[in-house]
């Protein structure tokens, strides 16, 4: 029952074009679903009967079932408390450059500057506008490919804010989306 909700959350977070409102909504629906499961755990949880397992009392089954739900809810809250870096990644997503060249992603830029407060917003917007309209940059598949083009053409000083945005980790503590500890060596 819980795994169906986990699978749905995973699939929804794999979309290529996401925004903070979408992420917040998806995570809220997930936590609401898990909370509903937790609230509906009956006092007499059915346990599969196997001869090898020691029978648990009804109270112990209930306690374990609610503990599992509480653990999932706490981890979801912790891991998804910071999602702004996910939005900022869309600024350097190569397949979105043509779309961004027609309509600049101002809301993603705002979210990025919130996540990375040391960035110069005006300079970053100018740099990204140039990137979105350049054919060579449009061929880049993401931040790493864009960074390589900057390095190969000695453009890292020219595109300083864009280059730093693609390589600088978000300034935060706790765990990143997939549970790894953030890289703090470059902060």
Summarize the structure.
This protein has 187 residues and is mainly alpha-helical. The chain has helices at 2-12, 20-39, 58-79, 84-89, 97-102, 106-115, 121-133, 135-138, 143-152, 160-167. Helix 1 packs antiparallel against helix 2 and helix 2 (20-39) packs antiparallel against helix 3 (58-79).
Overview of the structural elements:
This protein is an all-alpha fold and 187 residues long. The protein folds into two domains: 2-46 and 54-79; 91-167, no CATH class. It is 59% helix and 0% strand. The protein has helices spanning 2-12, 20-39, 58-79, 84-89, 97-102, 106-115, 121-133, 135-138, 143-152, 160-167. α1 (2-12) runs antiparallel to α2 (20-39). The longest helix is centred in the middle third of the chain and has 22 residues, at 58-79. It is elongated and about 70 Å long.
Query: First CA to last CA: what distance?
Result: 41 Å
Based on DSSP secondary structure assignment, what is the total number of beta strands? 0
The largest β sheet comes out as: none
Q: Residue-averaged pLDDT, rounded?
A: 76
Query: Percent helix among the residues?
Result: 55-70%
Show unreliable segments: 167-187
Q: Which percent band covers the strand fraction?
A: under 5%
Shape: elongated
What does the radius of gyration come to? 22 Å
